[in-house]
Write a structure and sequence with these properties.
- The chain contains 9 helices and 14 strands.
- It is an alpha/beta fold.
- The chain has one domain: Metallo-beta-lactamase, Chain A.
- Strands 6-5-4-3-2-1-14 form a 7-stranded mixed β-sheet.
- It starts with 13 loop residues before the first strand and ends with a strand.
Length: 271
């Protein structure tokens, strides 16, 4: 059962606001007080601003946009959003090269290397590699005031690196992309099905269950399921699978949320 949260103004509360997640656009805000960083900018600038307003986040001071990888659903509004917010774009050198090749007007790049932590404002950020069919894709561990948050989607398989990085997180935004039966029965071309199910594709609900079994620890308080397929999954199926695993682990104290493609998810706060 999805648990309700209220937005709390206390400066030591760390919030995660998923503005939207799915194949048509991804954007997530991690914030503390009025300070924030944005992960991906897959919506147009106008839509991003609209969703920030809907989520009550329009007054946030965004310091940077962090890019997980170059696929369109993660960078569609990147340049215009970066210019409107007047912030740098953070990406790996390989990803930055691809992005510049796609849009030569992209400026204010700052590059990072997976495995090398860096700071932005009050946030300590540790990027790590993930298996996906993109150029140098990454997930992020973000720490602030002792709270550890993971953002990891577009994952082909559960690597030892992924398990290590997600260990002992207070909050996780993780992929639960598709239901295997729905994908197999869908009208998608066979080569696309193979890509999605492959080691450079996306996690199915059952794989996400395995990920939770290995990474949910005593410190875990909230889990946000993200990047659900609109055609090959449903929020009910993804939630049921994850909740089943949490129940078997006797973790009824963990808040479980499902991000939407069409509207912002109410802010999930650290506890």
């Amino acid at each position: 059962m999805e648990k309700n949260t209220q937005q709390l103004p206390a400066a030591d509360k760390i919030g995660v606001t998923v503005l939207g997640s799915g194949s048509k656009g991804n954007c997530t805000l991690v914030h503390c007080g009025r300070e924030a960083i944005m992960i991906d900018a897959g919506f147009s600038c106008r839509e991003t601003k609209s969703r920030l307003l809907q989520a009550g986040m329009s007054g946030m001071r965004v310091h940077a946009i962090l890019v997980t990888h170059e696929h369109t659903d993660h960078v569609n509004g990147l340049r215009v959003c970066a210019e409107a917010l007047d912030v740098p774009v953070y990406a790996t050198p390989k990803c930055a090269t691809v992005l510049r090749g796609t849009d030569s007007r992209l400026r204010q790049f700052a590059t990072f290397t997976p495995g090398s932590p860096f700071d932005i404002s009050c946030f300590d950020i540790d990027p790590f590699p993930i298996p996906h069919d993109a150029c140098d894709p990454v997930g992020f561990i973000i720490c602030c005031h002792g709270v550890k948050i993971a953002v990891a989607t577009d994952i082909g398989f559960i690597s030892s690196c992924l398990e290590y990085e997600l260990d002992n997180c207070d909050m996780m935004v993780v992929e639960s992309n598709h239901d295997l039966r729905m994908l197999e029965q869908s009208s998608r071309p066979w080569n696309l099905k193979q890509r999605i199910m492959g080691r450079q594709g996306h996690l199915c609900n059952e794989a996400t269950q395995d990920l939770l079994r290995h990474t949910v620890k005593d410190s875990t308080r909230n889990i946000i399921l993200a990047h659900l397929s609109a055609e090959c999954n449903t929020p009910e199926l993804a939630r049921h699978a994850a909740q089943e695993t949490l129940n078997k682990m006797e973790r009824s104290d963990v808040g479980l949320f499902v991000a939407s493609q069409t509207a912002p998810l109410p802010t999930v706060w650290s506890r």
